[in-house]
Q: What sequence folds into this?
């Protein structure tokens, strides 16, 4: 018998999908593809509202729109969670030039989110290129002092998952100004976070520390980053001038938007699906994360329209301020704790409106065999596999309340081509790919509502 | 023991990938992503050569380019297979108007491939809209005679696989002019074969039968197809005028391009990977099927560069004339038979340069369990599963020689948005997605070379 144990351990792999479940998910698919609103909702959010950075009038408009739309759906409850959020504004269109002798070469830049501005007339200094913090830290302070540090480490090409390339390089953006200022630099240029070679600068949040001078930071397009490296390589001394008038204003009141279908059997066990309603200001926040918002809204809506009565409580949550503060996610978890709510599982959609691929869980890989039948049930809609890469930004703070975090991971090869750029617009989202995401998320809500976590 | 049989039957599922195999495939991946040429080859094919319909100077240029490039790679043999192909030319830009009373509404059309032209001054008649051949056949001949038949059956939305939607509707394009002419119609309009709602007409081959009058056929964009249906619904009698000067010229000599790495152990067992070098004239043939051509070339090239010595004979084949005649595929199979060649397996890539998804075999579904370790080995590069949907157009004629046909199926949700249109251009192909396809195909060549079919 002992020898058979490894074989018997495989038995859950055999678990066939329940026909009732596959038929319900098929109904969700038919409903979304025949009369679903994911795509038209996204069009509204992108074209009638547009980029909606925390604290902006557009963010406020998005909150009111989502609240009103969800109200119309007749869910058990729809409410707003007040939260104070940072209010950063970009100001004038940013400008930059590289200067070599008498030659001026225009560079395509944009300010990093949360960055301070330059002096009104711009900032000019010699550029110092480095690839890593280690390289910068090893330099004598007098080599860095008074200069503009150019962090130029590119996305590695040979990674399977683009998010890993991002993880490998994004500290240049998020911590670059702190590291550079510690060495006496007066400004920072960061190579845009993307595999693409083009003229789009990619914004994104940067951070400061109170004890360290706040120096302005901007992102430079990959084409111009390559150009600047070349100029430095060929000429030695290259000066850069750049100007940005961005600034941080006082915090303002904003909201998370929550819609709920109450559970009939275990109402105290909450299953959440959500994305973030705020977006960067330079594009329309289509893939990041308008897609996740309309998918979350419509995942719940499909179940309501289907007449499904959930066993556990289901919530769609549109978080505010993921991009430059995470105040909405923190507030949500704070309120959950204060209200003694038990979130069994939370699904976050913040990786674009592309075809579904992977669903990650904060569970050990060897426990995922128990979900083979769910995997199989969702495979026709694009789910390749469940894996142990769970997590998420807005849902992150729920983790220490015992919540299993579920990351929804659509195919991510193109995401960073448009991430945080002016090119993140409605037209870049494919209707059917977006809809498949809605169906998968709706299916996950249904399965978690019916069966909980195993 | 009897009860254990179903469990023991699962044992192949456990087959772990051979570490030597996964390490070789990982090397192919690193090689393609660090220094691979798939993307630059595609740029050349699209931008320096462009659309390359059989018989055109561009098709000839593409043959010469591919032959020269493969020659440089130092494969064991590179050769051309002469084949006579049809030579259809589009002529002037097509024009069409719907006429309601004194109103003229411009319609976006293009001639169907192989279609005859209209009279020099165009063709005008009342339009008769039908959704199916059954509907058309049920009409009395006098209702159809002298009219332009408008086939308007749309892609169904609620299909999982877009190729099924195409299969469900494409007879309107391929057989519409025959069906309509049999009822005495004088021209045909066909709703474009796509889920997308836009202004692009989608060309594609149509057919005639010698005994039936050849009447001109054109595709109309989906937006204008909807508009035309609306006009007919609102007004009853709508006339359409259209003009196209396309025509079929005499057949011309062209070529398939073949590159070969000879097998060291079983040289008489051939494994083929291929796509079609010809494309429609209106775009650049980027996804259809420039992608498949450069992936096939580079799948073989990566193995050569890796220093791999194949056990079985490997061939990359670029077929001519898939789009409007299939003469290249037929010639290839004819020569294979004449030369007593044994093709163990043939892989066809003709579904776009998107992320890998499925690999289909002309094998029974229940025999695919034997390949679980290959599936697992290719999963990191995007392969969701192997299935029984094997087949292909150019490799099709090999089937009755006992060859297993393998269809390479990248994610297909966007393919028909640009299929056979002016929008099928290089810029629509994502570099990394294209490269993953090359890696998967190269990996498949390697596995089939090492292990044959199980």
A:
């Amino acid at each position: 018998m002992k020898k058979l144990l490894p074989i018997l351990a495989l038995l859950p792999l055999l678990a066939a999908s329940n026909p009732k479940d596959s038929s319900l998910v098929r109904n969700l698919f038919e409903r979304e593809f025949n009369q679903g609103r994911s795509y038209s909702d996204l069009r509204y959010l992108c074209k009638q509202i547009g980029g909606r950075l925390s604290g902006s009038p557009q963010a406020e408009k998005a909150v009111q729109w989502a609240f009103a739309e969800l109200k119309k759906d007749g869910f058990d409850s729809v409410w707003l969670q007040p939260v104070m959020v940072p209010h950063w504004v970009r100001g004038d269109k940013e400008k930059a030039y590289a200067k070599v002798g008498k030659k001026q070469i225009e560079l395509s830049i944009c300010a990093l989110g949360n960055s301070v501005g330059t002096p009104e007339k711009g900032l000019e200094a010699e550029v110092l290129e480095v690839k890593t913090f280690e390289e910068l830290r090893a330099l004598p302070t007098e080599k860095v002092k008074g200069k503009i540090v150019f962090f130029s480490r590119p996305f590695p090409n040979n990674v399977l998952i683009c998010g890993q390339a991002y993880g490998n390089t994004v500290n240049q953006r998020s911590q670059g100004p702190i590291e550079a200022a510690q060495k006496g630099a007066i400004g920072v240029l960061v190579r845009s976070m993307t595999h693409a070679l083009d003229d789009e600068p990619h914004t994104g949040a940067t951070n400061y520390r109170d004890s360290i001078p706040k120096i302005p930071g901007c992102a430079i397009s990959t084409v111009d980053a390559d150009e600047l490296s070349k100029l430095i390589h060929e000429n030695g001394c290259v000066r850069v001038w750049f100007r940005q008038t961005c600034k941080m204003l006082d915090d303002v009141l904003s909201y998370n938007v929550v819609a709920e279908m109450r559970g009939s059997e275990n109402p105290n066990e909450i299953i959440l699906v959500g994305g973030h309603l705020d977006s960067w200001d330079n594009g329309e926040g289509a893939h990041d994360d308008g897609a996740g918002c309309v998918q979350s809204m419509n995942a719940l809506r499909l179940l309501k329209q289907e007449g499904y009565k959930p066993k556990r409580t289901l919530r769609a949550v549109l978080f505010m301020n993921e991009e430059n503060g995470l105040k909405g996610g923190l507030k949500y978890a704070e309120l959950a704790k204060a209200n003694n709510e038990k979130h069994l599982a939370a699904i976050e959609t913040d990786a674009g409106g592309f075809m579904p691929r992977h669903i990650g869980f904060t569970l050990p890989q060897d426990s995922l065999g128990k979900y083979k039948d769910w995997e199989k049930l969702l495979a026709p809609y694009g789910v390749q596999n469940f894996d142990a890469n769970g997590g998420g930004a807005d849902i992150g703070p729920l983790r220490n309340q015992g919540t299993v975090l579920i990351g929804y991971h659509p195919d991510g090869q193109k995401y960073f081509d448009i991430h945080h750029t002016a090119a993140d617009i409605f037209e870049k989202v494919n209707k059917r790919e977006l809809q498949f995401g809605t169906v998968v998320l709706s299916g996950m809500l249904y399965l978690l509502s019916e069966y909980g976590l195993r």
About this structure: Residues 1-14 of chain B have pLDDT under 50 and may be disordered. Chain B touches chain A through 31 residues (CB under 8 Å). The CA atoms of residues 70 and 259 of chain B lie 7 Å apart.
